[in-house]
Design goal:
With 125 residues, this protein is of the alpha/beta class. The chain is built from five helices and five strands.
Length: 125
């Protein structure tokens, strides 16, 4: 299965996503903001165990998901990136990033929708 990094500042949402994706066999790492996630991506690549997918919230403190996605795409251009948001104005910020963003998941989402959408993105690779 895939190694997935989740960047989400809401602990309950991070726990839900982690359990859902681990439940179908993925290896999941979580980060509470974009800066921590970028550091985790760098560490994993340096250790020779890069992530297969980045799933990031758009609105987060320190470094938001758009900035994280741009940095991640620069450093690991072959890694798929999914954004998630509960705010329509934040979703609009992702337009124009189709070259680096594989999917945008709108909150709230169900466990089944999450698992299906993640698998669809992973299957494209």
């Amino acid at each position: 299965m895939a190694r997935i990094l989740i960047a989400e500042d809401e602990p309950s949402v991070l726990a839900f996503i982690t359990r859902a994706l681990q439940g179908v066999g993925h290896e999941v790492e979580g980060a509470g903001d974009g800066s921590d996630a970028l550091a985790a991506l760098t560490r994993a690549r340096g250790a020779g165990r890069p992530h297969d997918l980045l799933l990031t919230d758009i609105l987060m403190p320190v470094m938001d998901g758009i900035s994280l996605a741009l940095s991640a795409a620069r450093d690991a251009p072959d890694m798929p990136i999914m954004l998630m948001t509960g705010y329509s104005d934040q979703r609009e910020r992702a337009y124009g990033l189709e070259a680096i963003i594989d999917d945008i998941l709108l909150k709230p989402f169900t466990l089944d929708e999450l698992v299906l959408r993640v698998q669809t993105v992973l299957d494209k690779e």
